[in-house]
Fold:
Amino acid sequence: MSNCAKYSGEALSFIVEAKCSVTKARVANLILPHCPVGKLYTPVFMPVGTAATLKGVLTEQLKTLGCEIMLSNTYHLGIRPGADTVERAGGVHKLMNWERSVLTDSGGFQMVSLSKLSSVDENGVLFQSPYSSGEKKSNQPIAEYVDGGTEQNDMLLMTPEKSIQIQNQLGADIIMQLDDVVHVLTEGERVEEAMWRSIRWLDRCIAAHKNTERQNLFAIIQGGLQHELRKICCAEMMKRDKNVPGYAIGGLSGGEEKQDFWRVVSLCTDLLPENKPRYCMGVGYAVDLVVCVALGVDMFDCVFPTRTARFGTALVKKGGSLKLTQEIFKFDFSPIEDDCPCCTCKRFSRSYLNELISQPNSCAASLLSIHNVAFQLQLMENVRSAIISDTFPNFIKSFIQLQFPKGDYPVWVTEALSSVGVDVK
Ligand SMILES: [Zn+2]
Structure:
């Protein structure tokens, strides 16, 4: 296809191969140090392996499902087993026996969301050690994780430099800047302060990044729900474009109105460079994925598919999900989904899974996690095929009809899709 955007950097290439003629959706080949040409295509969903493992799913199984890139959490890995240990193991890929691509987050989000006490100033995020109250659970000295932390010191400081140092040690293909995370419903001056600080921290992250030849630092657009701030943030961060191989849209999926959510996403995809990947953080519901792809997003991650699996819920095309804990599945000997290629659907019935969940049995969480990850990956593969054959608008219509069989389409879905020329009503 002619006139398609392309970027070729030190450790990342992004080649747009197809564009939807109606919506803002596109398919691109993303080439990373652990991903040769022609393997990894966007739009892509990245399952989250919190501490170098997807709970209940082996890396072998992920490979069989066709997963090419997964996410690991810097906060968790930095604490256990610790960045030095991961580095000595040969990096996160070697540690977990995963030779495909990995993205690590900056750790900032977990520090703010998981820590009982955290405060932010220009220097960094000060947070309470997760091991400071009660018994210490690890032999790893927490001091190696953040500057100023000692085993005796309850409060620890994470700076942009420290986040990048840890992520350099972990060795993921894509690393994220430390940003100033504010809750999406925060209002007033704090939102603007966090936006400007995230820009300054991007500069500090760029300066601290040692492995530009094998690791790609992504910027994170902040600015809450305020369009003017998002515009400034995009413009400022794009001034650093030569040091930034990709951009994330951050600070969403935190309980905001969906009407606000999609408008910010769409605004950012309009402003961000066409020739670099756009990653919308923390998005994982099937409907959200399809809508955001139509709005021009390329990459997604979310714990939702594996988390909901552990509560006995299977993701399906018709109606969205099945709560396999329900009695009605006791004598249902069909698979979760007839046409699902995953090993759970090929081998086991809803009835069997219903029984395992009721025991409860950890195999149930594992089998459901495998299906749910397969569901997400399959969905994205179908999305990419539809964009390539330029039938994406029709794909969206049938997909939305199946997800909402009663026709009760959420207003935000119809509005967002209509903004890119697709009428699903
Ligand atoms: Zn399945």
